[in-house]
């Protein structure tokens, strides 16, 4: 299986690539080939007098390539110019990537996690599942928030077709996942008897049985309230390493539109997020 790994050659991404545990998790997911891509601004001229931007970029990419190769991955490198999310998703489509990996850093002054415009736009236009890997700053240095990427999964479902597509990711993570929490959030204005309400517990139970057959310890929850807030509240309770959910919607131009719930959770979660786009 093949992954496109987006890098800005920063110390934060170095931290993720230097984590043997993270890389082993990717191997258990099935990734054995990685396309390492960095996108430079078209406004930067590598040939400016006294500038060694091209050399610095090449050396930084080689350093990360060597680390990935030392862990057994086949690595292809790409230095391209343009709009980052377009070039990253374009490469993913070109090589038929099974996964896109992008790091997310930083917090707002209100201590609410945000995703930068690049990651947000990758998520909105992705043609492959996107793993948003959280990188935090502790004691003045970057650190991977959850090294065991798929050990504890929080799966949020509204029982839509795309949520079912997201559930299929457990087939890929089964060798790395030890625990799973399956969550459905009922809208506060829904009434008993409406579709998807009365049988929510039974549907989750059936999903849980499938995971338990694969040795994954699984619990189920049904909450009521605003979906994103309840998902984030459960995240605080169960402390997953990754939140798994589906994005929803498409335009006529095949541009995927994140639903408000998936975008909010992707932006604010403390855990990694594995976001599965709708079928093309």
TrEMBL record:
<comment type="similarity">
    <text>Belongs to the universal stress protein A family.</text>
</comment>
<protein>
    <submittedName>
        <fullName>Nucleotide-binding protein, UspA family</fullName>
    </submittedName>
</protein>
<dbReference type="InterPro" id="IPR006015">
    <property type="entry name" value="Universal_stress_UspA"/>
</dbReference>
<dbReference type="Pfam" id="PF00582">
    <property type="entry name" value="Usp"/>
</dbReference>
<dbReference type="InterPro" id="IPR014729">
    <property type="entry name" value="Rossmann-like_a/b/a_fold"/>
</dbReference>
<feature type="domain" description="UspA">
    <location>
        <begin position="150"/>
        <end position="277"/>
    </location>
</feature>
<feature type="domain" description="UspA">
    <location>
        <begin position="32"/>
        <end position="132"/>
    </location>
</feature>
<dbReference type="InterPro" id="IPR006016">
    <property type="entry name" value="UspA"/>
</dbReference>
């Amino acid at each position: 299986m093949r992954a496109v790994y987006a890098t800005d050659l920063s110390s934060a991404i170095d931290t993720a690539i230097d984590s043997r545990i993270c890389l082993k998790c990717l191997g258990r997911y099935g990734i054995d080939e990685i396309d390492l891509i960095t996108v430079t601004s078209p406004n930067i001229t590598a040939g400016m007098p006294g500038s060694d931007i091209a050399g610095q970029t090449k050396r930084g990419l080689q350093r990360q390539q060597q680390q990935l190769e030392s862990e057994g991955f086949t690595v292809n490198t790409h230095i391209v110019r343009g709009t980052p999310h377009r070039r990253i998703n374009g490469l993913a489509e070109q090589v038929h990537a099974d996964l896109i990996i992008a790091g997310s850093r930083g917090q707002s002054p209100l201590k609410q996690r945000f995703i930068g415009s690049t990651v947000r736009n990758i998520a909105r236009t992705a043609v492959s599942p996107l793993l948003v890997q959280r990188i935090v700053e502790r004691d003045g240095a970057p650190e991977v928030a959850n090294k065991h990427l798929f050990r504890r999964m929080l799966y949020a479902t509204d029982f839509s077709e795309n949520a079912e597509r997201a559930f299929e990711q457990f087939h890929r993570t089964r060798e790395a996942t030890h625990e799973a929490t399956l969550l459905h959030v009922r809208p506060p204005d829904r009434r008993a008897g409406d579709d998807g309400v009365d049988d929510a517990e039974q549907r989750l139970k059936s999903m849980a049985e499938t995971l338990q057959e694969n040795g994954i310890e699984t619990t189920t929850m049904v909450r009521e309230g605003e979906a994103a807030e309840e998902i984030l509240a459960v995240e605080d309770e169960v402390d997953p390493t990754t939140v798994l959910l589906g994005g929803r919607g498409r335009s006529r131009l095949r541009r995927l539109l994140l639903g408000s719930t998936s975008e909010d959770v992707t932006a604010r979660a403390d855990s990694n997020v594995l976001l599965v786009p709708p079928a093309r």
